[in-house]
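In response to the reviewer comment on reproducibility (Comment 2.3), we provide here a single inverse folding case reported in full, input and output, so that an independent group could reproduce the run without further information from us. The structure tokens appear first.
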């Protein structure tokens, strides 16, 4: 039996097990996807132990995405962003990838949204915003990052081609000319709130909300009300998992079975 899994802390509410196991079932694979919650100080032995046990692949989430960098050979994308969310143990040393970035690019591709030469606004400068910003830079978009803590937006933009930064107060001046708006803050998750005033949204926007609990956030509902195209956060989650599955197995992922498994647990 092949074993894949997720290391993070906490991982109790992760949707990766049902998503990956739906793929194994769909393709008739003899495989399991297991979650592990190691103590931070044990991370080094977790990676060497996983390799010794013959685990095929691990996803990595908070707080370990940087901690594992020293134990893997990074692919160029993971190297550049400085974070690993997928480890492939078929090489020695294992190879580290960042499929959060791939997940963002494939999300827009799935919805037929071109990123090249488009103008985007990203709200947020944490982990999700970082993946979104690197994806947009790779795809050739021009984008403005705004964040509650402006200095964090400035640090992120300074790492990237085509990026500028500012505070949330700039939204009224930058949104009218934007093609794409991305919420990469946690606003909308705990409470039914939006990081953007509804009157700033317009029909020419594509609005992607990285928040996936709930799927239909206030931002997405407000965007639909003005006729904007909307993309929910489950797509990014799906496509980072699809990319990890394809790295580990060399098989084409059964995207619709994985999507269904995710949405069954979110809707
Ligand atoms: P994070 O690193 O903790 O960053 C949180 C971000 O939200 C920061 O920019 C923070 O601004 C901002 N923020 C928090 N509360 C705010 C408020 N009341 N007003 C304005 N800004 C606020 O978190 P993360 O890992 O990036 O996650 C952000 C969201 O993305 C979460 O909902 C998470 O579930 C989601 N996410 C989705 C995916 C996916 O695959 N769809 C992947 C990863 C994360 P400051 O810098 O000023 O604190």
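Designed residues, in position order:
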């Amino acid at each position: 039996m092949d074993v894949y899994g997720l290391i993070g802390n906490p991982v109790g509410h992760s949707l990766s097990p049902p998503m990956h196991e739906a793929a194994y079932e769909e393709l008739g694979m003899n495989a399991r996807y297991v979650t592990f919650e190691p103590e931070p100080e044990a991370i080094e032995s977790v990676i060497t132990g996983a390799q010794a046990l013959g685990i095929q692949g691990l996803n990595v989430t908070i707080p370990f995405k940087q901690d594992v960098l020293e134990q893997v050979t990074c692919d160029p994308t993971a190297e550049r962003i400085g974070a690993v969310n997928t480890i492939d143990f078929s090489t020695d040393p294992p190879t580290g990838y960042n499929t959060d970035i791939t997940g963002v690019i494939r999300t827009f591709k799935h919805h037929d949204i071109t990123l090249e030469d488009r103008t985007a606004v990203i709200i947020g400068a944490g982990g999700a915003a970082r993946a979104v910003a690197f994806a947009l830079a790779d795809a050739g978009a021009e984008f403005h990052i705004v964040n509650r803590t402006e200095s964090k937006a400035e640090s992120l933009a300074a790492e990237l081609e085509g990026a500028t930064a500012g505070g949330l107060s700039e939204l009224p001046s930058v949104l009218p000319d934007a093609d794409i708006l991305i919420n990469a803050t946690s606003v909308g998750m705990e409470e039914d709130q939006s990081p953007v005033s509804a009157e700033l949204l317009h029909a020419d926007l594509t609005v992607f909300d990285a928040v996936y609990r709930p799927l239909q956030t206030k931002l997405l509902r407000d965007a639909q009300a003005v006729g904007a195209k909307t993309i929910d956060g489950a797509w990014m989650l799906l496509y980072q998992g699809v990319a990890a599955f394809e790295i580990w197995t060399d098989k084409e992922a059964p995207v619709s079975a994985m999507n269904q498994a995710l949405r069954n647990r979110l809707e």
